[in-house]
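Contributing new complexes? Match this layout with 6-O-phosphono-beta-D-glucopyranose.
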Amino acid sequence: MAEQTTTIVIFGASGDLTTKKLAPALADLYAKGRLAPEVQIVGVARSEMNAQEFSASFYDGFGPAAHFPPAPETWQDFSRRIHCCYGDVLAPDGLDGLERTLAAVESPDKPANRLYYLALAPSLFAPAALAMGRAGYQQENGCWRRLVVEKPFGIDLNTAMELNRVIHSVFAEHQVYRIDHYLGKETVQNLLVFRFANAIFEPLWSRNYIDNIQITVAESVSIADRAAYYDNAGVLRDMFQSHLLQLLAVVAMEPPSTFEADTLRNEKVKVLESVRRIPSQDAAACVVQGQYDGYLDEPGVPPGSRTPTYAALRLDVDNWRWQGVPFYLRSGKALTNKRTEVLIQFRRPPHLIFPQGPSGDITSNTLSICLQPNEGVHLEFQAKAPDSTLDLRPVNLEFNYEDSFGGQEIPDAYERLLLDALNGDASLFIRSDEIEQSWSIIDPLIHGLSQPPTRPPEIYDPGTEGPYAADDFLARDGRAWLGKCIGG
Ligand code: BG6
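Output block (do not edit by hand):
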């Protein structure tokens, strides 16, 4: 077979995602020698954009790991691969410019694989797939064609199913790579390694030893200028349907038989299927909602908006491994700090032979998996304080990425995901049935919470841990939030 080349086509070349994430990730991959030698990058934008402007974001993307500033010969070689053209997936001849550019940059003698990246407004995902279908862009003819679709994938179960239907009318499922950038995070992948490359945790990883699991994705940022998107989404669509449920799936899944895309995703789908659905009429009692004080003053937020910027909820996984172990999930904006952590709280010793210390109760063991920042794993257990009576204190066994890997840079999630999509490895991408399962968990909650006379979200002060009701929510189960990771 003739040697193949690869073309990366980015729809939405002038957007934030391309400038802030895709261009730096591609620059880094190029600097590390991980892109195919003959790679070409074509940006498609609806706005007027010249090649120089487009390539500037790649130049700026040469971060420290990619040796900023790039050597002149490196930049010369890389920049000649960067092209851009006008394109509009809504216009009848909207892809003509792209067609001409592809004809100019792809050699007629070497078949070119193509990765199409939809870095577009979500309302354009379906029109883009259809426009590509009309142009025959999905046809493989001896080389591969892949489509990367960003989040949000639909705004509820029906729209996600419809988007899957439209995409499948053009591309086969094996050609579709749905992004959840959390799966590209080094530490989320490490969770899989932690669970499945170590034999000591697996026997403990069940209802027999675990009391509850807490997943926290806290952010210190507000919604800033994203009201147009965020006010319609809210935290349940923006964070829970995607990132938090993916974290839950990785923590709770059964060990897959191989580290291959479909075996891995089959196990994630099984867990999501086992999550007990909360009917809409129970949503108000099962979810704590909050809104940070000042949200209504953010530019573009409609007066009186009830969009939650914080939520906490409990999910139960109805299978043998997890029966009776609550999974508490919480996420919010404008909180004390940025922190993503999975905390496993083990059961208390069944019988205590030691007197309780002055601090009162003996805490049970906790395993904290700190996903960002200060990436690491900490196991807290009890130890006897020296030179005293039997005074027990919690101490930590620690693993820190920074210390253990000599300050090695943690690559951005997009770098890993782009590389995987180029290599045809879909393990860290979401399959159509996974998306639909996640929506079927979140949809009834959103529906139930939007029904009057549901209480509006509790207002919380920015820079705090969120609404007080979230603490009461766990106290009702006789538990407390136990964040152990240090935020940034
Ligand atoms: C995005 C959400 O998917 O993830 C944003 O739309 C959120 O609202 C972001 O801020 C968080 O990602 P990270 O990588 O900064 O934790």
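Reviewers usually confirm one structural detail per submission. For this one: Residues 151, 219, 238 surround 6-O-phosphono-beta-D-glucopyranose (CB under 6 Å).
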